[in-house]
Design goal:
Strands 1, 2, 3, 4, 5, 6, 7, 8 and 9 form a 9-stranded mixed beta sheet that branches. The chain is of the alpha+beta class and 295 residues long. Mean pLDDT is 81; it is low at 13-34, 95-99, 103-107 and 256-264. The chain contains 8 helices and 9 strands. It is 31% helix and 20% strand. α6 runs antiparallel to α8. The protein has a single domain (7-12, 40-293), classed as 3-Layer(aba) Sandwich (Aminopeptidase), CATH 3.40.630. It holds the Pfam family BCCIP. Residues 15-38 have a biased composition (Acidic residues). Residues 1-38 are annotated as: Disordered.
């Protein structure tokens, strides 16, 4: 029998409204307007086999139509039992840790996944080869010469291993959850390094989802692009990044935020931004995220 998954109660109550009005006003039979408060408690756990489809779904919304073996990437994330977490709703199903039956886990959807995948020690694995090639290819087309040179050199430098940070969740999950999850990941990486496991990264790579206001013909260009980050905390990572580049994925998705835009709204175009930071800055980045989400 496998060891029970570690758990971390996140205890966040999500509000879908900016108003503090008494919820008793929401009488039975009233039409749902999207302004009602929804209180949800989450918990972080080690990924298990029962999380396979949920994790793969989250990876698919990040990588879209990129030529990647997402099944294999999902297996890597689950196989790293001491690295990474999934976020599930607390109380959605009681897990009997003395039972190998995963039926209860199947009832609990995966709302988020956070992990780290070595692009160096696992370079012989097919999906890691694909990720390495994808980064070189995308940077060649979209990055500055400095960034392009760094990625090409770092990919081949065995003495400066690269770690890909997976930080993916559904869009309505609050950024406050990022702090304990990222802190936990940082601690896990440190413990793994102490055990001489191959997670002593030189740099960390983040692939972030963002959306920009489409420039329309005849529309005055704004001084600064309107940008919406799918994971707001990643704007902090962007500010502290050593290298970055972005590319449009408009042709790979059906619509900007996978929702219906009102006729008066500007069209939002989906992008991916690749951020690279020195690994020794990870804790500082997390601290800045913590400060930002508490404002």
């Amino acid at each position: 029998m496998s060891a029970p998954p570690k758990k971390q109660t996140l205890g966040y109550e999500e509000s879908g409204s900016d108003s503090d009005e008494d919820q008793s006003e929401n009488e039975e039979g009233m039409e749902y307007t999207g302004d009602e408060e929804i209180q949800v408690d989450f918990e972080g756990r080690s990924p298990t086999d029962s999380d396979y489809h949920g994790i793969k779904q989250l990876l698919a919304q990040l990588f879209l139509k990129a030529h990647l073996n997402l099944s294999e990437l999902t297996d890597i994330i689950i196989g790293q039992s001491n690295i990474g977490s999934v976020v599930k709703q607390s109380g959605a199903g009681e897990i009997n840790e003395d039972d190998d039956d995963d039926d209860d886990d199947d009832l609990m959807g995966v709302f988020a996944v956070t992990s780290a995948v070595s692009l160096s020690s696992k370079k012989k694995v097919e999906v890691v080869q694909q990720l390495r090639s994808l980064l070189v290819e995308l940077s060649s087309s979209h990055a500055t010469e400095e960034c392009k040179t760094f990625i090409k050199t770092a990919i081949e430098d065995a003495d400066a291993p690269l770690g890909l940070i997976i930080n993916e969740r559904f869009i309505n999950i609050p950024p406050q959850l990022a702090v304990p999850i990222l802190q936990n990941l940082s601690n896990e990486l440190k413990k793994a390094v102490e055990k001489k496991e191959p997670y002593n990264f030189s740099h960390l790579i983040f692939i972030c989802k963002l959306y920009k206001d489409e420039e329309r013909k005849g529309k005055r260009k704004k001084m600064q692009d309107d940008v919406i980050w799918s994971n707001p905390e990643e704007e902090i990572i962007d500010q502290m990044a050593d290298y970055k580049f972005e590319f449009c994925v408009k042709d790979e998705v059906d619509s900007g935020l996978s929702g219906n835009w009102l006729s008066g709204d500007d069209t939002m175009i989906p992008y991916r931004r690749v951020l690279i930071i020195e690994a020794n800055k990870f804790d500082s980045v997390i601290e800045q995220i913590k400060i930002a989400v508490q404002r």
